[in-house]
Amino acid sequence: MAFGITKEQLSEWKHNVNKGEISFLTHYWYDERFPGCKTVTKVGCINVEQLMEWGKQYELHPNWIDKRGHFPHFDLLGEKQYQVLQAENKLEQLERLNLKKSSGGYNLYVSKSRENHGGFTFES
Question: What are phi and psi of 45, to 5 degrees?
Fold first, then answer.
């Protein structure tokens, strides 16, 4: 379940994704499977090749792109979410949601395939 964003923010993200831009949308998120994760950042682009190329700099595997629906995107959570937002100078999203660097823990990425490990790949 997503919350903490406006319809305008969601519409702007979708518009930018459809224009072929790498676009960021960070919002509060709850999923009981991930009790330590309170937010998610969706990094999308309609041009999947461009999104894959962008993801390489952050060691994001192309199979982690969620291609369901009309808005291909990476879902970033935890430490990787913080690192990418900071590196991309998206501090307003960090400040708006009061995100803080997590200590230790793990990075979690949603994979393309929902078959293995319930559809999730864990890195320690």
Answer: -165, 135
Q: Specify the residue for token string 């994979």.
A: 111
- Of 15-24, 66-75, 85-94, 104-113, the poorest mean pLDDT is in 104-113
Nearest in space to 26 (alpha carbons), one of 44, 3, 10, 42: 42
Extended strands (E) in the chain: 2-3, 23-29, 39-44, 73-77, 107-110, 120-123
Helix (H, G, I), strand (E, B) or coil at 77: strand
Q: 63 is written with which tokens? A: 């199979």
Question: If DSSP codes are grouped into helix, strand and coil, which group holds residue 78?
Answer: helix
Tokens coding 97: 């949601």
**Amino acid identity at 89:** N
Tell me if the pTM is above 0.85.
no
Burial 83-97 (b: 16+ CB within 10 A, else e): ebbeebebeebbeeb
What is the pLDDT confidence band of residue 101, given thresholds at 50, 70 and 90? low
